[in-house]
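Journal club prep — side note

Before the paper discussion, L.F. wants everyone to see what a predicted structure for a comparable chain looks like in token form. Sequence:
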Amino acid sequence: MSLLKKLWEYTRNTQVWNSIFRHGPPDTARNRGLAVLTNVYLHLHPVKVRKSGIRLRFTWCMGGITFFLFLVEVATGLLLMFYYHPTVEYAYVDIVDLREQVPLGVMRELHRWGAHAMVITVWLHMLRVFMTGSYKPPREFNWNVGVLLLVLTLLLSFTGYLLPWDQLAMWAVTVGSNMARATPLLGHEGPGASLLKIGDISLVNAGNDARFALLAGRFVGAGALLRFYVLHCVGIPLVATILMAVHFWRVRKDGGISGPV
């Protein structure tokens, strides 16, 4: 027995090794299953998947690409947070500096184009799931989780749109937030809002409806910039991360990647 083999056998039998790895090498079906189940990263995935389900032309790998782009957005977003100030005085100047002055300013472009690509890939992922019938029982719950993740992706794109604080961002968010006025029951121009009143006093008006809550005021200003920044950097990514964990876990519980209909 060579010295390296003896050293390997000695290491595998130490208490430190056995305290970390609770199974042998993945050389049998049982050990391969244990290797997945006892790994903090792999345990969300199924132990086995259908051969047809992992064909590139079937899945387009859009789910994996979307998750990869989310990780890119998190990594580049954390770096951008070191330089960006969510205030009216500095927001636009910071964006210009991030593009022209700060070393590795390419991070801002990676973040921006990664966000556009993520919106496209999540739509294509949903289209693939729909066209292959993967929304049908027993996967209807996971389909609804996916729809929520699609909405969160669009909200991430929408809240990030205001952060450059230029004319395009201002008017785009002004137009977009105006649609919140038509929110059912919660927008003062929405259906059902006129029914919520005490006497002649309307409970939902321009000073307390959904648009006011989104912008922290009646117009796009400093309050809206700070609110969008917090939602973009903390609130929505946190909810999306939790739902993605549920999404991956549910894929495993439903038998892995769905096969062709």
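L.F.'s comment for the group: The two ends are 53 Å apart (CA to CA). Keep this in mind when we get to the figures.
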